[in-house]
Write a structure and sequence with these properties.
mainly alpha; 69% helix; 0% strand
């Protein structure tokens, strides 16, 4: 199955993650703090963003829905988001 770009981002999951970072006050502030602490290291910031997304995942019982949700979290291109944050 071919992956298609979404609104200029690698995929829907990446676009949606960045959308929430930009529009949720807590996430926005946390992402900015992580960007400042990264010392412009895109890889380190990408890793921190992946951790942030995983930490924020709600606790739900193992099910089809939890598997699909976590699969989507793994599809985010955190490196692309990190690059974008550091360019801002």
């Amino acid at each position: 199955m071919q992956k298609l770009e979404y609104n200029g981002w690698t995929n829907y999951e990446t676009w949606n993650f960045k959308l929430w970072l930009d529009n949720d006050e807590f996430s926005h502030n946390r992402a900015r703090e992580l960007a400042k602490a990264s010392n412009k290291d895109v890889g380190a910031l990408a890793s921190d963003l992946r951790e942030l997304a995983t930490e924020e995942a709600p606790e739900i019982q193992a099910s089809f829905y939890s598997d699909v949700m976590m699969a989507s979290v793994r599809e985010v291109d955190y490196y692309e988001v990190a690059k974008s944050l550091l360019e801002d």
